[in-house]
Amino acid sequence: MDNLKIILLWLWDILQWPMIETADTRITAWAILSFVVLVVGLLWFARKTQRWLAEGPLLRVRMSESARYSIGALVRYLILLIGLLIILQTVGIDLTTFNVLAGAIGIGVGFGLQNIVSNFIAGLIIMFERPVKMGDRIVVGGVEGNVVNIGARSTTVLDNDNIAVIVPNSKFITDDIVNWKYNNNEVRFRIPVSVAYGSDARQVEKLLLEIADQEDDVLKLPPPAVRFLEFGDNGLLFELRAWSSSLVDRKGKLISQLNFAIYERFNQEGIAFPFPQRDIHLRSGVLEVRRADSANPPESVSD
């Protein structure tokens, strides 16, 4: 028992050894160890509090998932800020002692931290203004997918190939963002259709509307519409405009389903699809055309 007490006293003396000592502050190994343990506990507590708010009190309030997440994240950052200040004072670290050192370090690393700080501020702006929310379908910088996480520095976008793309938050402030679900989940799809000249335009319109009406993923309200766009080089150009809320995340599937249905129905009704055609006009001269089988066979050479 005495040996254990001696060992503990020896360890305590080691932990009381000053690692950093100034005129007004004495930072020991025990203070640093306490600081690390308390910070780890603070991080755990802040994350647990965020989850508890999002899945507890805020869940009973009529609030969207993204709004609950944003409020929980802001509370988490506030807990971290206040908790860190309390921990520094608890372990005896006087922040005023490091003003000169912090200023020197800040000048040195400030330029390197510009992107991190800008991304963090952009993350706060996203959470307050909410131009992008959890579950939104967005297109940013050539990346299209669903927002699955909005962090302090970056946002995670999951595309249709189940690939997670990490996008810096600053891109949502500086770049143009396409948000398919900003207002609601209803999105209009445009399917171009071309038919051969000589086709009945009114019949084409009727068939396209019937095809859209029979598709389960096309909304009845707003109703689908057909537009006769122009007389193209090779055929008549139409456009089927259909609304959907179920396949916003998989627009390629809806377009494919409608294209299959259009092709099969038009073949049944005898409506031809155009193919490139070119007329050749000879302004002068004579062009001789002969069939291959009518051409004179080559003369045989006698021995």
List the helices and strands and how they pair.
Elements (H helix, E strand, L loop, with lengths): L1 H14 L2 E4 L4 E3 H27 L1 H4 L4 H26 L8 H11 L4 H16 L7 E4 L2 E8 L3 E5 L5 E5 L2 H4 L3 E2 L7 E9 L5 H14 L10 E7 L4 E9 L6 H19 L34
Antiparallel strand pairs: 1-2, 3-4, 3-7, 4-5, 5-6, 8-10, 9-10
List descriptors.
alpha+beta; five-stranded antiparallel β-sheet; three-stranded antiparallel β-sheet; 9 helices; 10 strands; 45% helix
Shape: elongated
Main sheet characteristics = 5 strands, antiparallel
Report, as a whole number of angstroms, the end-to-end distance.
Answer: 125 Å
Strand order of the largest sheet: 6-5-4-3-7
Can you tell me the residue ranges where pLDDT is under 50 for at least 5 consecutive residues? none
Order of helices and strands: HEEHHHHHEEEEHEEHEEH
What share of the residues does DSSP label as strand, in percent?
A: 15-25%
The number of helices is 9
- Average pLDDT metric: 79
Radius of gyration: 35 Å
Approximate helicity band: 40-55%
Mind explaining what this structure looks like?
This protein has 9 helices and 10 strands. It has 303 residues and is α+β, with helices and mostly antiparallel strands. A hairpin with a 3-residue loop joins strand 4 (143-150) and strand 5. Helix 2 packs antiparallel against helix 4 and helix 8 packs across helix 9. The termini are far apart. The longest helix has 27 residues, at 29-55. Helices cover 45% and strands 18% of the residues. The strands form 3 sheets. The chain has a 5-stranded antiparallel β-sheet with strand order 6-5-4-3-7.
